[in-house]
């Protein structure tokens, strides 16, 4: 069985809203709910650990009640960074394997979670090919310092799954080294544990800006809208 760590502690200032972006509505439903419902449908996810921005616990509880999420949910107050939030949530996981996702990716499907669970590897991340050219640069001098082989790079996505002990050990080591990461696949790999990837979908993007909100709303429209 798996515990899902659902990151939900951001404020979302770039959306220009007066509330956390995960509470904004897409097609009449709070963004947070989409990931919850997708996870709730996966039999092997037996626990969901959700964090919340300081002072917003009551509102998150209202959402959980309103949408009748049947999987047991544990609430944890968010840390001051994504990295510290994951670290604070790991001890609340009751299973030996965990999945990490973020509510700001509302287009996740139950099949995405199941694809990770079905993988033969214990530490796995969804990733997608990079469709554009990237280059290493020196920000201070604005100089391009070389080139990168795009075929050997991937866009890191969520969800990801890990052995809880590997994830915990990697986070403990990062604290000792005073290093913070923006996601956990590279964190776990950098600390000596094998991590693999499987192909994700370009629709599984993170909602960050007002434009992202519009795009997500478009992609979440009912299929019958296409026939109009």
TrEMBL record:
GO terms for MF: 2-C-methyl-D-erythritol 4-phosphate cytidylyltransferase activity
Protein name: 2-C-methyl-D-erythritol 4-phosphate cytidylyltransferase
Originating organism: Candidatus Brachybacterium merdavium
Any single Pfam family the record assigns to this protein: IspD
Domain of life: Bacteria
InterPro entries associated with the record: IspD/TarI (IPR034683), IspD/TarI_cytidylyltransf_bact (IPR050088), Nucleotide-diphossugar_trans (IPR029044)
Swiss-Prot/TrEMBL keywords: Nucleotidyltransferase, Transferase
Alphabetized Gene3D superfamilies for the sequence: Spore Coat Polysaccharide Biosynthesis Protein SpsA, Chain A (3.90.550.10)
């Amino acid at each position: 069985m798996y515990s899902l760590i659902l990151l939900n502690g951001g404020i979302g200032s770039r959306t220009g809203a007066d509330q956390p972006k995960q509470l904004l509505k897409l097609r009449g439903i709070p963004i947070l709910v989409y990931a919850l419902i997708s996870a709730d449908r996966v039999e092997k996810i037996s626990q969901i650990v959700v964090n919340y921005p300081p002072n917003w616990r009551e509102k998150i509880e209202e959402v959980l009640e309103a949408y009748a999420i049947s999987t047991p949910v544990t609430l944890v107050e968010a840390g001051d960074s994504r990295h510290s939030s994951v670290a604070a949530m790991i001890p609340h996981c009751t299973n030996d394997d965990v999945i990490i996702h973020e509510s700001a990716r509302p287009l996740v499907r139950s099949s995405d979670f199941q694809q990770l669970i079905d993988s033969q590897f214990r530490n796995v991340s969804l990733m997608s090919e990079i469709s554009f050219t990237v280059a290493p640069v020196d920000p201070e001098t604005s100089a391009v310092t070389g080139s990168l082989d795009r075929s050997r790079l991937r866009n890191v996505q969520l969800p990801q799954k890990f052995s809880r002990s590997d994830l915990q050990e990697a986070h403990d080591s990062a604290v000792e080294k005073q290093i913070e990461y923006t996601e956990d696949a590279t964190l776990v790999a950098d600390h000596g544990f094998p991590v693999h990837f499987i192909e994700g979908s370009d629709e599984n993007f993170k909602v960050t800006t007002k434009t992202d909100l519009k795009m997500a709303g478009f992609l979440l429209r009912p299929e019958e809208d296409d026939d109009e």
